């Protein structure tokens, strides 16, 4: 089957050239109609909770600040992902939300959940920020 087509194209070179020209012109015609987005627009909806606890080790930060905050933040509806990072003297929790969510309501829910948590005496008040 394939060898027959190849044999016909070698014997009828003009037909092969015309077929190639049809493919080429079809591609040139279709090219402007393609919609290609090299940098698609999307909005990342992220809320960051930062806490400073001077003199705390990473373990202290994890156990006395990050874990209690994470436990209350799990009650916030509709978040996609929650990640936390503990360092000496500070900790950060990053919450990602889907694109179709009302971010102001999500921010309010996060602030309410953070306010419910009782932190150790030396810890500063958590800072809740919206990242655009």
Topology:
Elements: H1 2-11, H2 13-30, E1 45-52, H3 58-73, E2 81-87, E3 90-97, H4 103-116, E4 127-131
Antiparallel strand pairs: 1-3, 1-4, 2-3
Helix pairs in contact: 1-2
**Assembly of the depicted chains:** single chain
User: Terminal Cα separation, in Å?
Assistant: 59 Å
Order of helical and strand elements = HHEHEEHE
- SS-derived structural category: alpha+beta
Contiguous helical run count: 4
Strand content: 15-25%
Strand order of the largest sheet: 2-3-1-4
- How much is the radius of gyration in Å? 29 Å
Q: Per the principal axes of the C-alpha atoms, what is the gross shape? A: rod-shaped
Instruction: Write down the overall mean pLDDT.
Output: 89
């Amino acid at each position: 089957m394939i060898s027959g087509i190849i044999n016909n194209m070698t014997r009828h070179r003009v037909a092969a050239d015309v077929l190639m020209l049809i493919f080429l012109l079809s591609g040139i015609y279709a090219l402007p109609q393609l919609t290609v987005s090299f940098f698609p627009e999307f909005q990342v909806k992220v809320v960051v909770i930062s806490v400073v606890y001077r003199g705390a080790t990473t373990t202290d930060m994890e156990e006395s600040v990050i874990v209690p905050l994470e436990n209350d933040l799990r009650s916030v509806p509709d978040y996609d992902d929650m990640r936390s990072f503990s360092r000496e003297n500070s900790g950060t929790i990053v919450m990602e939300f889907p694109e179709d969510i009302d971010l102001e309501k999500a921010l309010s829910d996060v602030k309410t959940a953070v306010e419910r948590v009782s932190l150790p005496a030396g810890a500063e008040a958590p800072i809740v920020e919206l990242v655009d």
